[in-house]
Specification:
binds protoporphyrin IX containing FE, 5 helices, 142 residues, mainly alpha
Length: 142
C-alpha cells in the first residue's frame, strides 16, 4: 500500500460518512424548522459533526491533490476529461459546497432563535449537499 492509495481509499470511503452526516443534519434541520421545534443539543452536535466531516474531507482532499496522478497541469491533461475533472472541477465544486456548509454552521450559531438556527442549516447544508452530489455524479467513468 502506497501513501497515495492509502489517502485515495480514505477519501473515497469518507464520502459516505460525509453524505450520511450531512443528510441527517439536513433532515433534522427541516423537521425543526417546519415543525417549529426547539434547537436541541442533538441538533447542535449533529450540525457540528457534519461540518467537521466536510472539513476533514477537505484536508484529505488537499493531501490527495499532491499525491494523485490524476492531478496534472498540462495542455494535454486539460483535454482529458478524467484528468481535468480531478485537476480542476472536482475541488472547485467541493470547495464551494464546503464553504456553503461552513457559512450555514456559522449563521446557525449566530442566530438568536431556534427557527433561525434550523433554517440556516436547512438552507445552506442543502445547497452544499446538492453540489457535493453533483460533484460525485459528474466523476467521469470509463
Ligand atoms: C484545510 C483544512 C481546513 C480548512 C481550510 C478549514 C476552515 C475552517 C474555517 C474557515 C472555519 C471557520 C468557520 C466559522 O467562522 O464559523 C472553521 C471552523 C472549524 N473547523 Fe475547520 N478547516 C479545515 C480543517 C478542519 C479539520 C480537519 C477539522 C476537524 C477534524 C476542522 C474542524 C473545525 C471546527 C470544529 C470548527 C469550528 C466550528 C465552530 O465554530 O464551532 N476543520 N474551519
Ligand atoms: C465534500 C467534499 C468531497 C467529497 C465528497 C469528495 C469525494 C470524492 C470522491 C467520491 C472521489 C473519487 C474516489 C474514487 O475514485 O473512488 C474523489 C477523488 C478525489 N478528490 Fe475528492 N471529494 C471532496 C473534496 C475534495 C477536495 C476539496 C479536494 C482537493 C482539494 C479533493 C481531491 C480529490 C482528488 C485529487 C481525487 C482523485 C483521487 C484519485 O487519484 O483517484 N476532493 N473525491
Amino acid at each position: 500500500m502506497t501513501l497515495y492509495s492509502f489517502f485515495q481509499h480514505l477519501h473515497s470511503g469518507f464520502r459516505y460518512i460525509v453524505l450520511v452526516l450531512v443528510v441527517v443534519a439536513i433532515l433534522g434541520a427541516f423537521i425543526g424548522w417546519i415543525g417549529q421545534k426547539p434547537y436541541t443539543g442533538a441538533n447542535r452536535k449533529l450540525n457540528l459533526f457534519a461540518m467537521i466531516s466536510v472539513h476533514t474531507q477537505l484536508l484529505i482532499g488537499i493531501i490527495l491533490y499532491f499525491l494523485s496522478p490524476l492531478v496534472q497541469f498540462s495542455k494535454e491533461a486539460m483535454h482529458d476529461k478524467h484528468l481535468r475533472y480531478f485537476t480542476v472541477e472536482h475541488w472547485v465544486m467541493m470547495l464551494v459546497a464546503i464553504a456553503l456548509i461552513t457559512i450555514g454552521h456559522s449563521k446557525s450559531k449566530k442566530a438568536a432563535l431556534a427557527e433561525g438556527k434550523h433554517k440556516a442549516v436547512a438552507i445552506f447544508y442543502f445547497l452544499g449537499f446538492i453540489i457535493i452530489l453533483a460533484g460525485i455524479i459528474l466523476i467521469p467513468r470509463g
